[in-house]
Fold this sequence. Notes:
This protein is of the alpha+beta class. It has helices at residues 5-12, 15-22, 28-35, 39-51, 70-88; strands at residues 55-60, 63-68. The protein has one domain (18-88): Orthogonal Bundle (Arc Repressor Mutant, subunit A), CATH 1.10.10.10. It has five helices and two strands, in the order ααααββα. β1 (55-60) and β2 form a beta hairpin. The longest helix is centred in the last third of the chain and has 19 residues, at 70-88. The protein is globular, with a radius of gyration of 14 Å. The N and C termini lie far apart (30 Å).
Amino acid sequence: MVMREEYTIIQKYPSMQDIILNCEGKTMTQISRLLEITYSHVTNVCKILEEQQIIGRKKVGRRKHVWLTTKGHRIRSLLMELRDVLKEGK
């Protein structure tokens, strides 16, 4: 069975899902503190998400804020739906 690249990326970076679910409008530092992961890890994951056109980073003043793209909003909705389905199984 051949795994798709997007699937293996999420496996490699489990925090990617948390960043997608919690990043909207936050700075990289805020995301790092919220998820209790290093700033450099947030930067690396956000770079991948930006390359995949899932997020955009916009400089506001001296800080970079993270925003979901249209594709990112679709993925976020699917992740939230998946979490709801998994909660129903308990």
